[in-house]
Amino acid sequence: MSAPEENAASPACALQLRSISKTFGAQRALDHVDLDVRSGEIHALMGPNGSGKSTVVKVLGGYHHPDTGTALVGGRPFQLGAAKAAELAGLRFVHQDLGLVEDLSVADNFHLTAGRGRWTVPLSKKKEAESAGAALREFGYDIDPGRRVESLTSAERTAVAIVRAVSGGVGDPELLVLDEPTASLPHADAEIMYGALRGLVAKGRSVLFISHHLDEVLALADRVTVLRDGRNVVTRDTNGLDSSELAALMLGRALAADEAREHESASTRGRDGNPVLLVEDLRTAAAQGVGFEVYSGEIVGIAGLTGSGREELAPALAGQIDRQGSMTVDVVAVKPGRPRAALAAGVQYLPAERRRDALFAGASIRENTVISNLDSVSRFKRVVRKLERTETSKWIDVLDVRPGQVEKSAVELSGGNQQKVVLGRLLRMDPRVLVLDEPTQGVDIGAKLAIHQLVRQVAAGGAAVVVCSSDESELAALANRVLVMKKGRIGTVLEGAQITAERIEEEQLAVSATASASPSPRGRGLVDHE
Amino acid sequence: MSDGTALRRTASLLSVRRISVIYLLGVIVLIFGITIPDLFLSSVTAQVVASSQAVVILIALAAMLPLIAGEFDITVGTNMALSLAIVCQQSQAHPERSLFAVCVVAVLVSGLVGLVNGFLVVKLRLNSFIATLAMSQVLAAIALKISDNEQIRGTFPPGFSDFGQAKLAGIPVPLLCSVVVGLVLWYVLDWTKLGRQLFATGMNREAARLSGVRTDGLIISSFVTSGLISGAAGIVYATQVGTFSNSVGAPLLFPAFAAVFLGATQFNHRPNVWGTFLAIITLALGVQGLQLSLTSGGFWITPLFNGLALIFAVIFSARQASQSEKASSDGKASIDEPPAVAPPDGALLSETAASRRATTGTS
Predict the structure, then answer these.
(1) What pLDDT score does A527 carry?
(2) Phi/psi class of residue B189: alpha, beta or left (left: φ > 0; alpha: ψ in -120 to 50)?
(3) Are A376 and A383 spatial neighbours (Cβ–Cβ below 8 Å)?
(4) CA distances, B94 to each of B97, B105, B155, B278 (Å)
(5) Domain ranges in chain B?
(6) CA of B109: how far to CAs of A179, B99, B104, B178, B224, in Å?
(7) Rg (Cα) of chain B, in Å, rounded?
(8) Is B204's CB within 8 Å of A359's CB?
(9) To bridge A526 with a disulfide, which of A195, A521, B61, B363 should be the other Cys (CB 3.0-4.6 Å)?
(10) Predicted pLDDT at B234
(11) Is the pLDDT of residue A109 over 90?
């Protein structure tokens, strides 16, 4: 649709894809897709789940062979569908899961992909560590190469993965391809990464990144290409583009009125009677005495940087991890550290790590849905398939899960639909307290809006809702009240008109500026070598 | 329209991916039915297979339960040997004691072994593969001590041994015992909350725990039940053979696990009771046919056939699974899912989970 006008052999283009098509069975994943990434540019690739973004990355990386299409890298013809050719041409990839081995040190992880030296050449731990440390310092990261990856924060891991991708491999890195690199990073941590990427393009390299975050794309990218149903929708400058315009481009329609409300603040609710959820002096490893209350019908957002204690709050409330301090639901105390105790009190919990903590990947939608209460689909102690199917169909309809086949295996669903299935499991229990941890992480915009709508309905039905999120715009869209965590405590409480994504961001950063004990993310920014 | 969908449903029910072992069984019967019809298609073959496999089936069912919960139980073979040693030794040394009581005690001891296994795995958080491997050596030592490293011929009343040779409607009674145990397990696993929660525990323990499943208790129970069934297998073996020797037990481990793994490639692609039965009968018939075909010295056929059949079945099933996964992941909904997060669907779900844990160790 938007055939870029540059000369086909222009060296000013780091990457040119022309008319790439890829068909899987009867499904056309890519339909004559064009993509141009200019040298020294940060280019975003966007689109709803199923639009073909990841297929583009897989074709580039040599994982898929395209049916048709040509490619130029740095002006030279490039053979698509071969991993070795991609590396030689200077394409570097960082996938969403980062591809780091947690049990190994940073230096070992660098060495894994270094690809130099024959296997007979003995390894030198010291040299490895030195080269890894030097590469990290070049990007302004002070990370000890001897540390094990599992001891790093998610921001540091992302940094290691990016630096490793750029510094390793054979041949000069021309283009860095990032597949949702910030999906698990809070905004302030993501900022550091943006700094590193900007430094990279300042040296004449180029970056292509996939993201679901509209604001991130607008802040970071010079240009954006939007795909939908495997076709180009548009390629344009991000200047003069706003997030609702971008969302409309992705969805292929203007936002409905209730969806547009996403970009406004939710109103403050009146509080009457006793709080449903009352938390006093809650302590975990990261939380240092947190207290708050949530009333019926209220949505309370929890913000905070990684390490602020935010990421341990939801697991502590749900009994996934141990805690100290008191927690009551409708004035009844809930025992700590036991999911069953929380469940019995009416607390339903959506974990942040869906694949690790929530999804039964090999099981069907039916099995994933009914596991929360098998008695309700049983007669005389016997689980009845017909009742299970009726119950599951009901929730498939409510949540608009697609494809909505009861016996479909959960692993075959997109991230957004998997999240909906897990939500259905919780909502069928008619929760008194709904605790959501990163409810829309790795979920496309359509599913995100739908999930937000559902959460509002649950609150309107009288439940108390707690949303922990590193996505400030999500909190701004959902919460009646936002608690910003600082150093394990609740620092600021934002209410009503105070709740904007910018304000939440500021409050989080204000925390880290005063936090002397933990290394400040800002202070670890990029060192300018120019 | 409805005819079309019915046809498709029938076709998918009969697909090779679902029931490859049934086709293999057909091929075996066909081949040996043509080459050696007189020897193979005889009631003797059926009797030999039926009575010799009863104990293997029980051991396989015992191994299957912890496997569904995502844990290995390597002790099944030696646990059965322990129960056999206790029964033989006690009946010989104390013929005055009630044989029934001795049998009950022997089965309970095996159940206790299961409890220890469960405790080691759940409470002390040991890797189940390592813990039960170690326990199997401890059990072997106890059995050696009891037997004083000699064969023990149990002194059983005639009724006891008759039981092992008896037939009901032409079916050997030991096989009937296995079928009864199989029926009970099938009902519990497929049709009750307990079974569903056990599968959930094996698929994703943390997700199951957060959904309110008592995962620790279920895993321990699966080990205890596994021990009880192993112990019962020892009693059945005593009725059939009546002798304990050091070579009994441990060699059953492989056929049992092979049958569970092979069975898990059938029907719903999880460890399941009837897939396990089918795998054992098919392997036994294949071995029987090959041994009858050879003029002499076919003793080496059994492990060779078992090993190769398992390898090919799993290769076949994994390929089928990856193909169907590709076909489905090519559906629009999941194109954007990175391949790194898609685990191998289908084949041996809990088994892969368990073996992954075995190789990485518990941390």
Answers:
(1) 38
(2) alpha
(3) no
(4) 6, 14, 9, 40
(5) 15-360
(6) 56, 15, 9, 20, 10
(7) 22
(8) yes
(9) A195
(10) 96
(11) no
Cβ atoms within 10 A of the Cβ of B334, count?
22
Tell me the three state secondary structure of residue A74. Answer: coil
Domain B15-360 in CATH 1.10.3470? The answer is yes
pLDDT at B332: 34
Question: CA–CA separation, A515 vs A486, rounded Å?
Answer: 8
Q: Distance from CA of residue A118 to its chain's centroid?
A: 38
Q: Is the peptide bond before A336 cis (omega within 30 degrees of 0)?
A: no
Nearest by CB: A412 against B208, B210, B329: B329
Distance CA A280, CA A325 (A): 6
- A183 shares contact with chain B (CB less than 8 Å): no
Decide: helix, strand or coil at residue B14: coil
* Interacting residues of A100 by C-beta distance below 8 A, sequence separation 6+: A109, A149, A157, A160, A161
pLDDT tens per residue, range A328-358 = 999 999 999 999 999 999 999 999 989 899 9
Strands of A76-77's sheet in order across: A27-38, A13-24, A68-73, A76-77
How far is residue B330's CA from residue B313's CA, in Å, rounded to a whole number? 25
A382 near B CB under 8 A: yes
> Which region holds residue A230: left if phi is over 0, alpha if psi is between -120 and 50, else beta?
left
DSSP state of A478: H
Contact A381 B192 (CB under 8 A): yes
Overall pTM > 0.80: no
Note the helical H segments in A266-327.
Answer: 310-318
CB within 8 Å: A362 and B208: no
ipTM of the complex: 0.82
Whether A514 has a pLDDT exceeding 60, the answer reads no
Size of interface A-B (CB pairs under 8 A): 141
Statement: residue A171 has pLDDT above 90? no
Look up residue A95 and give its two tokens.
């996938």
From chain B, the residues in CB contact with A443 under 8 A are: none
Structure tokens at A197: 């990427």
Measuring CA to CA, how many Å separate B168 from each of A179, B159, B163, B174, B175?
A: 65, 15, 10, 10, 10
Dihedral of CA B192/B193/B196/B199: which sign? Answer: negative
